[in-house]
Design brief:
The chain contains 23 helices and 15 strands. The strands form 4 sheets. Strands 2, 3, 4, 5, 6 and 7 form a 6-stranded parallel β-sheet that branches. A 5-stranded parallel β-sheet has the order 12-11-10-13-14. A two-stranded antiparallel ribbon has the order 1-15. Helix 1 packs across helix 2, helix 6 packs across helix 12 and helix 14 packs across helix 15. It is globular, with a radius of gyration of 25 Å.
Length: 506
């Protein structure tokens, strides 16, 4: 009788569900396949490795070695340009930047360089509304504009807004018709001569030129060294976040280094000060993991993440809606994609990688990410491996997050700031955040572990691999991927590989 009662209880609940929650089933019936999939619980895909990783033991000596800072590699920051303001400005240069925070950051650096090439006055760049995150944050919402202008005052002229005579030159103006003052044909990685031949005449004729689109519109090669150094100066000196982002970032770093015990909370504006005694000699070390596993990344990769037909259909539909068949990866099988290192690492996989490198469950992690595809269900495996894992939400109060809530660029700015101040930075997959952080930390000679994506893809395809073999392969495959200087090659980004353009041999 007891068994019958227990067995019948779920059935009774199912019958009562429409009465108890009348809107629930109706909302599911109208939900998209991708939304329905995200309600499901993601299961671990590498159960054998996970079980061994959870039982791992790491010696204190190995842990100490992992945290050792990078040795001096004989390179120093070298970004000082030769200040020289033109006697007369050729006109005002406007640029319209799209993409996320780090793509905008690169675009700002390029805009300063182009303004210098043209002897133009740069208008503070306009940020397009991000179509994915719907973030309307402006330059001044993210970056300290007065610091930006002050650092570059001897290099180029910069204005926050156009004078009244050019107030008509707006984003809306250029959206309604073809305009003589808009340049929309700037090629990817255009040369300095292209700007002199195609943009300078517009400036001289009209006193203003607006370039849209602008992202990635300046070459990394065959530019005068003073222009390269100016780009470096913008990236590493002129671009700093607004004070409230820096203050929140400092607070999060402090809480990671000195976990509070018996903390008294004192409200000071929107930041929460903790009143407790800390021992400066016992500052904790921490790793920042940039978990680039949002729906866009998962869909665009065209990889299989173990969710079966429901997940495949949901991601395929999303991919078709957003990119309309322009995703080349979808032509390959999952095995081909993984073997080539084209699949982003899931939270479970980046956790196994970090564990194989030797980090134990006492390691403090900070998770830098916006919105993880699959939510907490996806993250839970990583949290099992590293229970001392924090993020913005766990470290900061809701009051402290008020000024960044719902603003993808500001959320990313906080993660960038914390990442730049961490002992070790690891990105789960290549991308703009990975590239920007790799370059910035190389410039500061800080340890940054670059996952060997092709190796990891092949290892995870091997379902019979043992934990010792997996760990040995990971260690050997990441021996020289910890932040060692890699000189920039032709066509590579100056913002990812700052040597030798932004750095000099000591």
């Amino acid at each position: 009788m007891e068994l019958q009662t227990r067995g019948g209880l779920p059935g009774i609940l199912v019958l009562l569900l429409p009465l108890l929650l009348p809107g629930f089933l109706s909302s599911l019936s109208y939900a998209s396949p991708s939304k329905f999939w995200e309600l499901n619980v993601a299961k671990p895909r590498h159960s054998s490795l996970l079980k061994s990783a959870l039982q791992r033991e790491t010696s204190h000596g190995k842990q100490s070695y992992l945290w050792d800072p990078l040795a001096d590699q004989g390179w120093r920051p070298c970004v000082q340009s030769t200040p020289s303001l033109p006697v007369k400005s050729e006109g005002y240069l406007q640029v319209f930047l799209d993409g996320g925070l780090n793509q905008q950051r690169m675009g700002i650096c390029d805009a300063v360089a182009v303004a210098k090439i043209l002897n133009a006055t740069l208008v503070i760049p306009h940020f397009e509304v991000n179509p994915v995150w719907q973030d309307s944050s402006s330059f001044m919402d993210i970056f300290d504009v007065d610091h930006f202008i002050d650092v570059l005052k001897d290099d180029i002229s910069i204005v926050k807004e156009l004078p009244d005579e050019f107030s008509w030159s707006t984003r809306e103006y250029y959206a309604t018709a073809i305009r003589a003052t808009r340049i929309k044909t700037a090629p990817i990685h255009a040369s300095a001569n292209w700007y002199l031949d195609n943009v300078l005449p517009v400036l001289q004729s009209y006193g203003i030129a607006a370039i849209s689109p602008f992202s990635h519109r300046l070459t990394f090669d065959s530019l005068p060294m003073d222009i390269q150094r100016l780009r470096c100066k913008v990236n590493f000196q002129a671009l700093v976040f607004v004070p409230h982002i820096r203050a929140l970032g400092d607070a999060l770093v402090s809480r990671l280094r000195y976990p509070s015990k018996g903390t008294e909370v004192v409200n000071t504006g929107y930041l929460r000060e903790t009143s407790h005694v800390t021992d400066e000699n016992r500052a904790r070390k921490f790793v920042v993991i940039h978990l680039r596993f949002d729906k866009d990344m998962a869909a665009h990769s065209a990889c299989d993440f173990g969710g079966g037909k429901a997940e495949k259909l949901a991601l395929a539909k999303y991919r078709q809606v957003i990119w309309q068949g322009r995703v080349l990866n979808s032509q390959f099988t999952d095995i081909e994609l993984r073997s080539q290192g084209r699949c982003p690492l899931t939270p479970e996989e980046i956790g196994l990688l970090v564990a194989a490198l030797g980090f134990d469950n006492s390691t403090r992690l900070y998770l830098a990410s916006h919105k993880v595809y699959g939510g907490e269900a996806r993250i839970s495996t990583l949290r099992k491996l590293f229970p001392l894992m924090e993020d913005k939400k766990s470290l900061a109060s809701s009051e402290e997050r008020t000024q960044i809530k719902g603003k993808a660029s500001l959320l990313a700015a906080v993660d960038y700031y914390v990442g730049l101040h961490s002992d070790i930075f690891i990105s789960a997959s290549p991308g703009n955040m990975h590239n920007a952080m790799l370059g910035h930390r190389t410039y500061k000679n800080m340890k940054t572990i670059r996952p060997n994506m092709a190796l990891m893809g092949q290892l995870f395809l091997n379902k019979s691999i043992s934990w010792p073999d997996f760990q040995q392969a990971v260690l050997e495959g990441h021996e020289n991927r910890q932040g060692e200087i890699r000189l920039r090659k032709p066509k590579q980004s100056i913002y990812t590989y700052p040597a030798p353009d932004c750095m000099c041999e000591a």
